[in-house]
Specification:
InterPro entries: 6-PGluconate_DH-like_C_sf, 6PGD_dom2, 6PGDH_C, 6PGDH_Gnd/GntZ, 6PGDH_NADP-bd, 6PGdom_BS, NAD(P)-bd_dom_sf, Pgluconate_DH
Radius of gyration: 25 Å
Organism: Micrococcus lylae
Structural class: alpha/beta
Pfam families: 6PGD, NAD_binding_2
Strand order of the largest sheet: 3-2-1-4-5-6-7
Strand content: 5-15%
Bound molecules: NADPH dihydro-nicotinamide-adenine-dinucleotide phosphate
Number of helices: 20
Function: Catalyzes the oxidative decarboxylation of 6-phosphogluconate to ribulose 5-phosphate and CO(2), with concomitant reduction of NADP to NADPH.
GO molecular function: phosphogluconate dehydrogenase (decarboxylating) activity
Largest sheet: 7 strands, mixed
């Protein structure tokens, strides 16, 4: 065969990636379980480039030049295993199987190990940017064996988004690292969307600003250091008027947020690797709480006491309040990034990945949902993009800050935002407006820099009921107080 790449799974994502490859000059072999999708793609978009329609996976594989590159874009989960099982007997040593769907990184690790035994490369690739990104240039986060990148990387880089001449694509690490990085991207996305939601809620409920007026505020914010795709589309959504009712569309939409699982995975993994990703987890919990309409309805009846009159009047200086909210949003968003990047390092230590945070931040500068001016600043705080920099798993390369918030540009930005951030959280609490991520992010910030944490008391409690021992501030060793005896201390 002569085709450069085969794509199996031609629903919207697979079809758009296939078209993207073809538009970039590659010959793309097409396959879908049911033939109709293949035919539809060729009929509608066949003129966009070189396609080879195939009926079976055998035919797909035969149409490819060696080393064969087969990209799987089917429904995540069992379907990916089904397709792999059918593909493997058809492939030869050195061929590359690519999973570009939203697979769980543990599945990717398992599949990579299984295919490696058969001499095949399995590459889990994180792809972000939705349908439009897939077609016009997504952010691409490939994992898998590094050797495979020689044969695959240039093609992925060609179809990826481009930021100032650099592709939003680079090999991130072995086995499941690509899918892991994409998962954390999504976790940060959840938090970013939630902090925007909290800002909107405060402007609405405390400052009384209608959606249309807020659209202008978000448009203006998009000219500040908050500039990002999500802020931009927020202005679009807020200015949309429902054709049927004439009301702001946001008031017509049911306020129950859906989720497909990547945010939940991020929170779970954060717990697994012991990384405090509270802002990300809170944003997942906020969606879960929103999606319990019956409980919420009961709560409005039964827990109504104290709600009347709890709202504070619109602040006398609305402009100052709006700026306070902007600062709180920026600071909280930074914390979400700090937590997300931190969990990448923790996972790297756990799974033996060499993750370079500067390079990873560079991939998110364009093409993906969290694309934002801020990512270029974050990238520079981590020493810029350097695809040859491979820090020891769990460590950061020389000169990279141990926490995003320690980078000089951010220590200063947060210090400036802090008074606003506190005022906003205090106002929200007084007014009864829930701000789980604003407040959790602030607690993380205060927790990080606290002189003494009540963890000392918790150690005392643990020693009391479980003889778990504690360390002392004044000398080395582990100690236990004989709580049920004469309460003398023994060294253990
Ligand atoms: P779907 O997730 O809806 O999956 C549909 C495709 O999977 C069809 O081609 C279907 O074939 C195929 N399929 C399902 N089960 C099997 C099976 N057992 N064997 C073979 N083929 C099967 O498609 P999407 O395009 O929406 O998403 C594809 C992947 O991309 C998913 O992992 C999804 O999570 C991810 N995604 C990523 C986004 C992003 O922004 N990165 C956005 C949306 C999705 P058939 O036509 O025969 O039914």
């Amino acid at each position: 065969g002569t085709a450069d790449i085969g794509v199996t799974g031609l629903a919207v994502m697979g079809a758009n990636l296939a078209r993207n490859f073809a538009r970039n000059g590659y010959t793309v072999a097409l396959h879908n379980r049911s033939r109709a999708r293949t035919d539809a793609l060729v009929a509608e978009h066949g003129h966009e480039g070189e396609f080879v329609a195939t009926e079976t996976l055998e035919e797909l594989v035969q149409s490819l030049a060696a080393p064969r590159r087969v990209l799987i874009m089917v429904k995540a989960g069992q379907p990916v295993d089904d397709v792999i099982e059918q593909l493997v007997p058809l492939l030869e040593t050195g061929d590359i199987v690519i999973d570009a769907g939203n697979s769980h990184y543990e599945d990717t690790r398992r599949r990579e190990a299984a295919l490696a035994e058969k001499g095949l490369h399995f590459v889990g690739v994180g792809v972000s940017g939705g349908e439009e990104g897939a077609l016009n240039g997504p952010a691409i986060m490939p994992g898998g064996p590094k050797e495979s990148y020689t044969a695959l990387g240039p093609m992925l880089e060609k179809i990826a988004a481009d930021f100032d001449g650099e592709p939003c694509c680079a090999w991130v690490g072995t086995d499941g690292a690509g899918h892991y990085v994409k998962m954390v991207h999504n976790g940060i996305e959840y938090a970013d969307m939630q902090v925007i939601g909290e800002a909107y809620d405060l402007l609405r409920q405390v400052a009384g600003m209608e959606p249309e007026e807020q659209a202008q505020v978000f448009t203006a914010w998009n000219q500040t250091d908050l500039a990002s795709y999500l802020i931009e589309i927020t202005a679009e959504v807020l200015s949309q008027v429902d054709a049927e009712t004439g009301r702001p569309l946001v008031d017509v939409i049911v306020d129950e947020a859906g989720q497909k699982g990547t945010g939940r995975w991020t929170a779970i993994s954060g717990l697994d690797v012991g990384s405090p990703v509270a802002a990300i987890a809170e944003s997942v919990f906020a969606r879960s709480l929103s999606s319990q309409p019956q409980v919420r309805a009961r709560a409005r009846e039964l827990l109504a006491a104290g709600t009347e009159g709890s709202g504070t009047p619109a602040p006398s200086d609305r402009e100052a309040f709006v700026e306070d909210v902007r600062q709180a949003l920026f600071a909280s968003k930074l914390v979400a990034y700090a937590q997300g990047l931190d969990m990448l390092s923790a996972a790297a230590a756990e799974y033996g990945w060499s993750l370079d945070l500067g390079t990873i931040a560079s991939l998110w500068r364009d093409g993906c949902i969290i694309r934002a001016d801020l990512l270029d600043v974050i990238m520079r705080a981590f020493g810029g993009r350097d695809t040859d920099r491979h820090p020891e798993p769990g460590t950061r390369a020389e000169g990279q800050p141990a926490n995003l918030l320690f980078a000089p540009e951010f220590t200063q930005a947060i210090a400036e935002a802090l008074p606003s951030w506190r005022r906003v959280v205090a106002t929200a609490v007084a007014a009864g407006v829930p701000v789980p991520v604003f407040s959790s992010a602030l607690a993380y910030y205060d927790g990080l820099r606290a002189e003494r944490l009540p963890a000392a008391l918790i150690q005392g409690q643990r020693d009391f009921f479980g003889a778990h021992t504690y360390r002392r501030t004044d000398r080395d060793g582990s100690f236990h107080t004989q709580w049920s005896g004469d309460r003398t201390e023994v060294q253990s």
